[in-house]
Amino acid sequence: MRYIDVHCHLDGGFYGDIGELISKLNAVGVQEVIAVGCNLETSVFAREQSEKFPSVGFTVGIHPTELQDFDKNALVRLAELAAHPRCVAIGEIGLDYHYPETDKAAQRAAFTAQLELAHELGLPVQIHSRDCAEDMLCLLKEKRELLKEGFLLHCYSHSTEMSEEFLKLGAYFSFGGTSTWSGSKKARRTIAALPSDRLLTETDSPYLAPKSRYGAFPNTPESIPEILENMAAVRGVSAEEMSETVYKNAHALFGKL
Fold first, then answer.
1. For residues 141 and 124, what is the distance between their CA atoms, to the nearest angstrom?
2. Which domains does the chain have, with CATH numbers?
3. What is the spatial distance between Cα 148 and Cα 219, in angstroms, rounded to a whole number?
4. Each residue's pLDDT tens digit, 149-167
5. Using an 8 Å Cβ cutoff, are 4 and 30 in contact?
6. What whole-number distance in Å separates Cα of residue 123 and Cα of residue 59?
7. What are the residues facing 143 on neighbouring strands?
8. Of 8, 39, 46, 23, whose CA–CA distance to 174 is shortest?
9. What average pLDDT does range 122-148 have in this prediction?
């Protein structure tokens, strides 16, 4: 079987030698990973990994909790990085209302500017959406013309009912280690309800280890087989069928993989 991790963070120095990690991934069938940028520094690091390892694609973007240096110059730099042939998307970008000091207006402005950049460059987007379901849906409806290249709601955590509304806008949905946890009934309901051609697998490494390694750090893309097998079981299909479906979905959304 072949597996793919559409959202992981390779920066931070948590994994030791990245080349050794890639070898371990190959050994368990994880053929491709998308290394995600959260600010300019991590976007550059992700690009560097894609240049070293053919199995790594990357994204560039500024996360909603990393906006301290967000300005027009940052957008110019993101555009330069995104011109690289291995850049598959703009992300991770979005809204995060988890913290009480959140500047919601600044987050929405930065998110919109990066959606506009993705549209200009003809790239899909990877979206971070935390504790903001209603605002996220309203904004995406308002900006639906900027979403024609497709978008991923990574580590989807909103309701199954809300997923139906995002689906109408063309969303893809990825699920990670949390979907394997015993208490993750909402995620499992959503996995079961979504069309098969909209499902993707991720780890959000080094975070969110799956059930078998609960609490372990760092998580790595080696967890993808466990995540996919859980997804297959929830949907009542074989792991082989699920792996092919997810792999095709990833390449349908991220055309530059």
1. 16
2. 3-253 (3.20.20.140)
3. 33
4. 999 999 999 999 999 999 9
5. yes
6. 10
7. none
8. 8
9. 98
